[in-house]
Amino acid sequence: MEKQLHLNLLASRPPMAGGVQSSSKMKMGPGRKRDFSPLPWSHYFQTMEDVEVENENGKDIFRIYCSGAHGPVLLLLHGGGHSALSWAVFTGVICSRITCRVVAMDLRAHGDSKVKNPEDLSADTMAKDIGKVVEVLYGENPPPIMIIGHSMGGAIAVHTAIANHLPSLLGLCVIDVVEGTAMDALNSMQNFLRSRPKTFKSLENAIEWSVKSGQIRNMESARVSMGGQVKKCEDPTSSPVVSNSIGEGIIEEDEEEEAEEESNKKRMKEDDQEMKKESIFTWRVELSKTEKYWDGWFRGLSALFLTCPVPKLLLLAGVDRLDKDLTIGQMQGKFQMQVLPQCGHAVHEDAPEKVADALATFMVRHKFTEFKEGYLC
Known about the structure:
This protein is 35% helix and 16% strand. By secondary structure, the protein is an alpha/beta fold.
């Protein structure tokens, strides 16, 4: 079971326990209607901007979201297939805990970033991107920076730190990515990616799938972050057949199953008629095409993490994710570790307050910042 959950290390996998049930349908409660409408980024971040970075082939543009005006910068890097919006709810919480600034970045070929070579997702290239964005933002004298990365973003955070792309680096926080389990999971990753719906009828439909499948267990976070994972198909009429991703496996408890077959036929006919009018959504990133970079992201990661000379925090969804090198390093006190149970792989989305509390306590303990007045830790 836990081996299956480790497939989450590239993209969030719907959990087999506590998520979708093994039967063909999942009950959602006695006729409850839930709000799957998207939430705007502006509810959580103060500003949004596009940062232009010069490179050999021209200019690359990286979308960033920011909050806060004082204190150290928390540079947030999302996981594979996700976007900076996955940090939205967390940002609102951490800014209420400590004095800090937040910069959440859409990585290369993710979210709303636009680069000349979106196929190059090597660890080296992505780490250089981060250094260049920070240089454009702050010049030669950047403020103290705490780099925080989830999953793929955690691996890139480590590579960025080791390459010294952030000379003002204060500390490093890696969320739910460990070399041993990541490498073990890579063999099965393609099967997982093929099992996901390829398209959705609407953004609301995508949000509903993410919550009911267990990919994101926090409704609020799903409503703001899924817009960074999916996009409108440019030509809906030529798109693959839309998966009835919700209706196939999940129903509301008050539906009448007796008339289901007949109503399904009618609904399918209506869907066919309406298809050309609807905006079909699909994944922004084809993660299956990034396979050649997976090994480079994760191989040797534990040793690199332990070598980083700054204070380090490792947040995990389960203690079983520790590999041998990290187990020894943890016993030797080379980094601080905290396990946040009852979370899926998207720990910072599922439990933003717990992650914010752990990070705030870590930063205050190391005297990187202070708790805000009136906040009781």
